[in-house]
Amino acid sequence: MKHSDARMGRAALLFLPAKIVEGLIGVWTLSYTTACLSHEAYERFSTVNTVVVFANLLFLGWIINATTRYVGEYADTPRAGRFYSTSALLWAMPNALALLAAAVVCAVTRSTTWFAAFLMLTATSLYQITLGELVQTGRQVGCVAVSIASALAKPAVMWLVCRALTGGAAVDRILPAVLGYAVSELAGGLAASVLLKIPRKLSLRGFDGEIAKKFAAYGVPLLGVSVSVGLLNMIDRFIIIFFHGEFGIYNANNTISSTVFTMLTVGVMRAVYPAVLRGYREGGISAAKPLLDRGARMYVLLAAPAAAGLCGISRQLSSLLYQSDPYYVSGSPIIGIIACAMFFSGLNEYAIKTWELRAQTVPIMAGALVSMAVKVAVSCALLPVFGFLGAALGNLAGFVLYFTLSAVRARKTLLFSLRPRTIVTVVLGSLLCGGGAYAVSCAIASPFLAVLCAVPAGAALYAAVLLVSGEVRDELSALTARLRRGRS
Q1: CA-to-CA distance for 143 and 137, rounded, in angstroms?
Q2: Which of 257, 208, 173 is nearest to 80 (CA)?
Q3: How far is the C-alpha of 141 from the C-alpha of 148, rounded, in Å?
Q4: Per-residue pLDDT band at 488 (split at 50, 70, 90)
Q5: Helix 247-321, helix 113-136: angle, nearest 10
Q6: Which of 235, 259, 298, 368 has the most CB within a 10 Å radius?
Q7: What mean pLDDT is predicted for residues 234-248?
Q8: How far apart are CA 177 and CA 37, in angstroms?
């Protein structure tokens, strides 16, 4: 157990800083995307990207989940070639159908938009599969290198395309963003494949029906989960697209919080999930529970002040990233609301582990569907009154309910637990963090200086609460001991 805990800690120390860097690059890429595209082009790209993300969940989510789940059992065995050949063929089939559908739609509409969507779908799905395999096979350094390089490639490709089209002025086409995302993620997926040595192991004769059935048995039931959770995550965006308009404003501000919390959630989960899964395989729930508790605590300690801080600096952050463009800044309150929603979304990932570990998909799907229905009802009720803020509030209501339903039902089997001291410390520290950041951001007119000063001010207040409460005493002691060993 101590070995697993230490391994999880080392993985977190690698993944979290890497995801912070990747997240910062992602936020800057978002800022650049809105600058290099016209308002109308960014709205069109946001719509295409939303459809691609949902299509990836619907058609390829099952194979992504299955390969991530089982790659650790096959990667270093004589059957590795059969595993990769089977997963490659199963991945290629939906992509071939997507290409055919895109070609038909493009021929009928004489628009290349859906062919662009196909490129993004293929690149995104390959990237997600191979990065998941890198993590599960213990190639953390390779995963970090590929993810950061891919993140840097997005704005680089966009800049090159914009220079070629307009010399650097705003473009009224989605081509720069499409190529930026597709090329960077396709290159990242191929690079990860090379690190996994997949090309040399692929064979048409390597398809294994037994492995395919195993994938289907695990992944296909998860299709319902992928679709229900995907709709829960994205239904607010479709509501805005079809019933309100101004999706560019909503998506631009929504994506800021989504990017930050994806960074935190994935960074922590990449360290936690392999350890929890290994503990469950070796010792069942009794071995997995302490690891899940530590992972949840790590997430809460990082995510709660992040949500509070984003609430405090939302307007100045939107002004900074979108060059004080009133079109985008008008939606800045969305940042704080979505940050709170994403906090509960990330926390729910720890609440549903009891069913994920035992491959029970129905409880996850049922909770997501109920929460989605509430989210739609709240969003539609508030949309006429608050505009796109109504959809954001519906988002928050949906994720709070989803976490509550999951936590209540998971208590009988496996649910993480947090010490009362941890809860009090996080709540108090987060309130001071958000309040301090808000006060500093209001006192400074310049968006750049406001964000530059508000972030460390909020972080300092939060750190002070952690130190005074003794919440991080064990971590500080371990760090001190490690530094002493390093000197000796």
Answers
A1: 10
A2: 208
A3: 11
A4: low
A5: 60
A6: 368
A7: 81
A8: 8
